[in-house]
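Table S5 (text form). Sequence records supplied for joint modeling of the two-component complex.
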Amino acid sequence: MAVHLLVIMLSAILVNNIVLSQFMGICPFLGVSKVLKNCLGMGAAVIFVMLCATAVTYPVYKLLESLDIEYLKTVAFILLIALFVQLVEIILKKIMPPLYKALGVYLPLITTNCAVLGVTITNIDEGYSFLEAMVNALGTGVGFTVALLLFSGVRQKIDSSDSVPAMFKGVPATLVAASIVSLSFMGFGGLFS
Amino acid sequence: MSNLKEFTKGFIKENPTLVTLLGMCPTLAVTTQASNGIGMGLATTFVLVGSNIVISLLKKIIPDAVRLPCYIVIIAGFVTLIEFLLKGYVPTLYDSLGIFLSLITVNCIILGRAEVFASKNKVVPSILDGLGMGLGFTLSLTLMGTVREILGNGTVFGFSLPLLNESPMTIFILPAGGFFTLGIIIAVVNKLKHKKPPKEIGCKGCPNMASCEKLRNGGI
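The corresponding C-alpha cell record, covering 413 residues in total, follows.
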C-alpha cells in the first residue's frame, strides 16, 4: 500500500509533471516564474489549495454520483474551488495573519488556474480512492513547485542574456527554454511501469 | 460595417493564441493532431458564442461584485452541454480531448471575452465577437496541430505523407515539441508582422491580472 502511494506521488511529481507534460497551469508557470522567491510562495499556495480542493470535491462527487447527476461535476467543482479559495482567504486573514501575509497574494491567482480544476477531475477520472486522491494532489502540487523553481533559474539566465536573437526575445525564447526543460523531464518516463 | 470588424478582428489582428497569447494550456496540450486542433477550437467556439450571448443578455442583471462567479457558472454550463454533445456524436474526439474538454471552463479567452466584450455590448456584436475569436483560436490550433502532425507523425489529418512518414520526428508530438513549436510559430508570426515578439503571455481580461502583475514586477 505504502509503495503504491509512493508510486502515485512520484509519478505525479516527475513522470506526469502537471506543467511540463500535462500542460496545465501554464499561465502561472510563464507569468510568475520570473522571480525566484515568488515561486516558493506560489508553489506553497498551490499545494495547499490542491489538497483542500481535493478534500472538498471528492465527497461532493460521491454525493453527485449517488444522485445520478455526476455530469454536473465541472460546474460543481469550479464553484466549490472558487468558493473555497475565497473562504480560505477570509479565514487566514482573521486567524493566521502571518500565513495570510505570506500566501495571501497568491490565493486569488489560483481560482481560475486550470491545474487545480485539472487535478480534481483527474482524481475522479482515474478512479482513485480518497487517500490516493490526496496523495496525487500533494504530488501534483509538489511537481508544479519543482517545475516553477527549476524554470525560474533558466528564465533568469535567458532574460539577462544578450545573445538571444531579436526575433525570439521575450515569449518565444521562454517557450523554447520550457521545451528543453520539458525534454529533460522526459528522461523520467518509464521510471515506473 | 463595424459588426464585420468585430467578426474579423479575432482572425489575425487580435488572434487570441498567436497575438494576445491567451489560452496557452489547450494550445499546447491537444494539438498533437490537426483534427484535434479543429475539434478543440470548435468546441471552444461553441462555448464562447453561447456564454457571450447569455452574458450579454444578463449584463444588467448580474451584480458587479459577483460577476466572475456568475460568468464561470454560465461558462461551465455550456461546457457541460458540449461534453454531452461530443460524447454522443463524436466519441473519438471526446476521448482524445479528454480532460481538456472540461478545462474549457477555465480557458481565459472565454472569461476574457465575457469581461472585456460581452458584458459591455449588445447581443449581436457579442455573437460576432465570440464567433470571430473562436474561429481565430481554431485557426491557430489547427496550424499548430498540422505542423506537429506533419513533423511528428508524417501525416496530415490522418493521411500519410510520402518521405516524411518513413522516419517522423516523434519529439514533435511529445510535450517538449509542443512548447518548441508554439515558440517558433509566435516568433515567425511576429517576424512577418515586423513586430517585436511579446515580452509576456497575455493577461487581457484575466481576473488575476492585477495580482499577477504585482508579482511579476518584483514581488510583494
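Note: Residues 2-216 of chain B form one domain.
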